[in-house]
Design brief:
443 residues, alpha+beta, 6-stranded mixed sheet, 4-stranded antiparallel sheet, 11 helices, 18 strands
Length: 443
């Protein structure tokens, strides 16, 4: 039987042990996202640079802001023309918090009880290691059509400056699909919730604590605004509905700040409320923001306080059709590894994929090693076996995507474009729901 055009001559063989070692080595590097640090990702970028040079890969390091680097490699398949697939991950992590709260060294990379422990083990240094060694396994299997881009980007845990810079660069042009390797517990996540980070700055009138009648307290106003925001959430759920994977809109006050603990006899004039809004595909962010602003101002006015809303960041909810070739490739890779179809799901937060879709129009899907809910917790871990499993799925998915595209099976126009929420994926969604039980067997 003839192989498909440009297909690798052998099945990819992934070095799972090397992927585990790379995960451990990355975890041992403290790359905490801190806007005030002189360097964050630099040690991890240096480690990966040396590895890419050993593999003979072409790569480029770009300093997005001082001390924050993107590392992007391009692996040409050598098997003729074909599409371009990107694997994406980030090298920064969140803080470990108090070390005494951990039962292991957060940066020890300890392997115990079948798990690799440490900050970033799941989110998402295991994903980085799996995508790198998955691509390496595919490359060693022989020529393949098209090319693969690997992006190890910076500042995902902050303002996603790395993804924004990459999306604005020439390197983003011509990419036909992106697999974001964030931890999602064996789910193929075709949607991701949007996020609005919002400040509500309050201005009242200062007065003595013994003379509250002379004050216009931002604390009183803040309490009333918090109550009003619960009503906005109820309105939003009714207005924008419930997405079958992403759930419904949430409007969550996260900060209420006013006054000075050293001056308990003073009613302050100024305060601030921080709000974390999470949205679902189909949410009109402008309409939602207008409703929040109106409700906050009305509530504050009852205490004689004014409100000035300020949007800190606005990331849309995104969605890709479940019949898009990059999704189909992942499903095929997962099925080949686990013997059952994966469940479809949604990313509960946002990823770099959100920015790549919003700013560059790239179709993105999220699938990576690690539990869906373990990120940012103490005693973070990833199952050691998962690292090799995901690397093999990535290799198989890449092979499927690139060879199918080279054979003319279609890349452009297949399924709903990323970010769209049309009905094109409704039938595919029924298949996903039907396969959820089968997907559980692979977890």
């Amino acid at each position: 039987m003839l192989s498909r055009p440009g297909a690798p001559s052998r099945d990819p063989v992934v070095d799972a042990d090397a992927a585990v070692r790379l995960t451990r080595d990355l975890v041992r590097l403290r790359t905490v996202s801190d806007a005030g640090a002189d360097q964050v990702e630099t040690p991890a970028v240096g480690l990966l640079e040396r590895l890419f040079a050993e593999f003979g890969w072409q790569y480029e390091v770009t300093e997005v802001v001082p001390g924050r680097q993107n590392l992007v490699a391009v692996v040409e398949g050598g098997g003729g023309a074909g599409p371009t697939l990107m694997f994406e991950g980030h090298t920064d992590v969140v803080t470990e918090g108090r070390g005494e709260d951990w039962s292991v060294d957060p940066y020890g990379g300890e392997i115990r009880d079948g798990r690799l422990w440490g900050r970033g083990s799941a989110d998402m240094k295991s994903g980085l290691a799996a995508m790198i060694h998955g691509v390496r396994g595919l490359q060693l299997a022989g020529p393949f059509p098209g090319r693969i881009v690997l992006g190890a980007l910076c500042d995902e845990e902050g303002m996603m400056l790395g993804a924004k810079a990459f999306a604005a660069s020439a390197a983003a042009s011509g990419i036909d699909g992106v697999i974001v390797c964030e931890p999602e517990g064996y789910e193929v996540c075709t949607s991701a919730r949007g996020a609005i980070r919002l400040r509500l700055d309050l201005t009242g009138v200062m007065a003595h604590g013994a003379m509250p009648q002379e004050a216009r307290s931002p604390l009183v106003a803040g309490a009333r605004i918090v109550q009003a925001l619960a009503g906005v959430e109820e309105w939003a759920v009714e207005r924008f509905g419930t997405h079958r994977h992403a759930g419904s809109v949430t409007v969550t006050p996260t900060v209420l700040r006013a006054g000075d603990p050293g001056q308990l006899n003073v009613i302050p004039a100024h305060g601030m409320i921080g709000v974390d809004v999470r949205t679902v595909p189909g949410t009109d962010h402008g309409e939602l923001l207008a409703r929040i602003s109106e409700s906050a101002r009305d509530a504050a006015a009852t205490a004689g306080v004014t409100v000035e809303p300020a949007v800190v960041d606005d990331r849309p909810a995104v969605e890709i059709g479940e019949d898009h070739p990059v999704v189909a490739a992942l499903v095929a890779g997962h099925r080949g590894e686990h013997g059952a179809a994966p469940a479809f799901g949604a990313v509960p937060g946002t990823t770099d994929g959100t920015i790549l879709t919003r700013d560059a129009g790239l179709p993105t899907v999220v699938y990576g090693p690690g539990g869906k809910w373990i990120a940012h917790q103490k005693d973070e871990y990833v199952e050691v076996a998962e690292i090799g499993q995901y690397a093999r799925v990535y290799a198989a998915a890449a092979r499927h995507f690139l060879t199918a595209g080279a054979a003319g099976d279609g890349i452009a126009g297949a399924g709903a474009r990323a970010g769209e929420t049309g009905d094109a994926s409704a039938d595919a969604g029924e298949t996903a729901d039907a396969s959820a039980d089968a997907g559980e067997a692979a977890r």
